[in-house]
Amino acid sequence: MRIVQKFGGTSLGDLELLQAVADQVHHTVRQGHTVVVVVSAMGHTTDELIHRALVVDGRTSPGNLDFLLMTGEMQSAALMAMALSHRGTPAQAVSGAQAGIATTREFGQSRIVDVSPVFLERLIAEGITPVVTGFQGVAADGSYTTLGRGGSDLTAIALASALDADSCEIYSDVPGVFTADPRMVPQAKALTQLSYDEMLELASQGAQVLQTQAVLYARESQVTVKARSTFESMPGTRIDTGTDEPAHPVTAVALDMHVTKIGLVGVPDRPGVAALACERLASAGINIDLVFQALSHHNSRADIALTVADDDRREAIQVCQKSLGELSGDALVVDGDIAKVSVVGAGVRNHAGVAATVFRALADASINIQMISTSEIKISCIVARTDATRALNHIHDAFGLDA
Amino acid sequence: MRIVQKFGGTSLGDLELLQAVADQVHHTVRQGHTVVVVVSAMGHTTDELIHRALVVDGRTSPGNLDFLLMTGEMQSAALMAMALSHRGTPAQAVSGAQAGIATTREFGQSRIVDVSPVFLERLIAEGITPVVTGFQGVAADGSYTTLGRGGSDLTAIALASALDADSCEIYSDVPGVFTADPRMVPQAKALTQLSYDEMLELASQGAQVLQTQAVLYARESQVTVKARSTFESMPGTRIDTGTDEPAHPVTAVALDMHVTKIGLVGVPDRPGVAALACERLASAGINIDLVFQALSHHNSRADIALTVADDDRREAIQVCQKSLGELSGDALVVDGDIAKVSVVGAGVRNHAGVAATVFRALADASINIQMISTSEIKISCIVARTDATRALNHIHDAFGLDA
């Protein structure tokens, strides 16, 4: 089998861990598999490099920060290739540019546009295991680029697709995707299988497991992804197209604490008002999560509430403040003390009872639902942040996910 | 003017020094010059990376050590480009591969075979100052290579040649080339000008100033090199083709403590015997410095003495032991307690009195000369290591180099 194996920073925390990973890769190669290794920077290397960039006031120097940060992955790739070679598995460190990862020229957040793995195929043909630096590539003009933090997952999946690999194994310090975050829900169980769409909806939970852009790339290129633990021999979670008839309507429950609710109070109650507010945010590059419009109690004007990611909070408030002015609204209300609880599963659309079960579970626990949003495979509820963990556990229980 | 400026590891010892260098480069650019910067790794970075390679037993992993070490120069190039950009001189870090430095595929000691600075010329045309990583390049198969330690000088001179620069300034912590090592000869003076050949002969002294391969490349490509201090505003030493009629027959006195004398005692006294010993060493890649053959006092056999660099000592002894066996010689005598004192100057060949002055100076100081070798522009004497500093000072005095 041809396998791409990606190891993140926590799996390569120090040289001892790196050598344990090398033992594991060496073992897989000895079993007769062709392995292409993708590595992140070791431990806190990236943070240390960013610190040095700050000292010379260089964080905003376009291109040079990418050039600096990519050395972190290069060092871990070189050391991993050395450790493998020392074990009797000839290996060669390979940069993103050498691996043929062509990207856009958007420094710090480039997108992969093409992968031509000629250099890698030649190494493989020579019996040499390539150890590719994650998170980086090269733009058309020859500039080195990075894919943004966590982009090593994307590198691994893009290489798995280009190399026509049988699977892409993403190793981290957790043994796969769970029915809920085990730190919040002690009864949570590791999932055996998940569809790409379910994985995407679980992104907020799964951020530690698998990066969203990477899942999108996997869905597009139909790469089978396995999320596994570096430190345990469990099979992990397989992410692929999934079955048509899922055994359970609900697969997992996700919690996102990093959301902010912004309310535009007392705006005109006429068509297009919510659209205007949303368009303004969209053109500022801000994703809106949930939108809710209601008639105001007084003076027949309307209230609009929407949620955005905490990362976009500051900019979203500025944009909404402007929209409020244009609409001669009364006030802007910002509420950061909320959380989003989501039920995810391929069966959500076909089982009317799913929504009822969610609402009943929350009502029984006396938890107030502030906003609701549903998609084909997801139902999300905004609740007070103080109720979040309780909400998660009650819903997890209600669907019997601990069974 | 178009100037290549190269800064070594001591000039970039920490981020404070790096920023002082950035001030200096920024100043030169503001004066209207086009500058291409070449940097070594900061301070002890290379040593730290080698230490990490040792931990994973990877020092001998071909190619991967090059891949690891080149990150040191990449980091200093990125940080320098950031510091320059912050000062208002737009700058971009550039790798050896991007700079078009094509090398042989001899990992750790590759030679430059071609430079095609398309990427650099494009940056220059856009008003961006390139900051190129020294010491590295790319082989024909796409593998990254390093030129060997100190190869950043070579990078700078090769780029100066390819870019048709007016001069190549090599900055270090010494203000140029001296009439003798100032640590040994307190009266030593900095030289204003030196020919390539003289610089080559002073290599043992000049190792801290300029790498031998770099001087050879400069001579070949007729690049004017200036050896200057990063920390002082003195003009430094200009190294170029030199004048036909030097003002003084002798330019400088050099001392090399890192030599070993190996004697093959009691070998047959017939033609070709010294040649055999020398050929054996040459085919092992060992340079012989001086050779001396004399009739032995007993049994009409001969003694051969030769000197090699201390770095080659161990291997040279093995090769000579073998040669001794082939020649049925009596014994191998190894003497590490020697030093080589050399008088260098373009006028040596035309002034018969130079040799006499050297011998007289040493005789007056009661210093015994063990071996002598002369070239067009150099006279070297092997003396006891304990006499070395004294020999250096006496010769320096005899030629009035402190005047």
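qc> Residues 99 and 119 of chain A are 6 Å apart (CA to CA).
qc> done
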